[in-house]
Amino acid sequence: MTRVRRASWLTSEFRSSTDAVVGQFRSWDDYFIPGTSVLRNRLGFTSVDELLAAELKLSGNRIVGLALQPVVGEFDLDHLCEVHRRIFHSVYVWAGQIRVGPEGRMSKTAPDILHFAPGDPAAPLIPYDYFQAGPELVRYVQSQLAALDGLGRRSHGLTDELVGDLAEVWSELNVAHPFREGNTRTQLDFFFQWLALRGMTLDLATLAPGGTHRQAFIEARFHAQGSGHSRRLADVLGDLISPIPPSREHRIRLHRNLGHPPAHGL
Prior knowledge:
Elements: H1 2-22, H2 48-68, H3 77-88, E1 107-111, E2 125-129, H4 135-154, H5 160-176, H6 183-196, E3 200-202, H7 214-227, H8 231-240, E4 241-243, H9 248-258
Antiparallel strand pairs: 1-2, 3-4
Helix pairs in contact: 1-3, 2-3, 3-6, 4-5, 5-8, 7-8
């Protein structure tokens, strides 16, 4: 019962604290300081480089804090939004809000990973599409998180099937790209906690800037985005996910922090 009450409190707080924000951001242009390419921010920066440096530092500190005090929730859309809000609320007023633009499908350009080997300098830049903002995006994110819930209910430890199914959900959530900025950092914390709840860990250090698997992770996501197949991402995640055999007390503390009762036998 405590878990349900706390999740409901989180949801109502999130909605009441962000209702006023919705009216401020109705188009893609609303995210920017007028006449610039700098995102509106709470810090008063008008330089892209200064904002990026501050954002990386502050969000990094927030992520460390989340490792010590994770978001309580059901790994649903409210939970995902609250993770994003916790990481970025000191920088952006729209933290925790689903993006409202751009009109039409959003895309990013990156080297063609579909027809060229990773790192091939001959690979041309091609567009990779993301979901168009709107109700369909929200429904799709909800459907993927429902699939994640189903995976959690039927999983029994670390298996190739679990990694493959997790890669599928992760790649689709990446294509949805629900937030204006900070999707990857939010997903890393979200899935790290989801795995931790099931006695597994994700090696986040290797995915940090300069980490040994970061580039392979980025390329695998683009490959899934362009091909519709998440096998390459599953291969990367398979190298980074491992079981953890913590003490019984550690597991009970972890489940308590995440707001879930420990499984029978822990």
